[in-house]
Design a protein that fits this description.
Length: about 80
């Protein structure tokens, strides 16, 4: 293998490593967002059980009133 081929191989390996790192970071961010949403949902549902106002639940959790109202109507 000559120098140019070796350099190309190293470059491609580095590109793959960078791509893998970005993919991991994106997966982490998505998991974090999903976890935060699950926590907001749990808090909102607990507040609904306590008969709290829809607007207050929306304000505290940052969720849309329509979503909270949908959960209220399901229970």
């Amino acid at each position: 293998m000559n120098f140019q081929e070796e350099a190309q191989r190293v470059y491609e390996m580095r590109q793959k490593a960078l791509h893998d790192e970005v993919s991991k970071e994106e997966a982490y961010k998505e998991a974090y967002r999903e976890g935060r949403m699950q926590v907001k949902e749990r808090v909102a549902k607990m507040m609904l059980q306590e008969k709290m106002d829809i607007q207050l639940i929306s304000k505290v959790t940052g969720l849309l009133e329509d979503i909270v109202l949908k959960w209220k109507n399901k229970s």
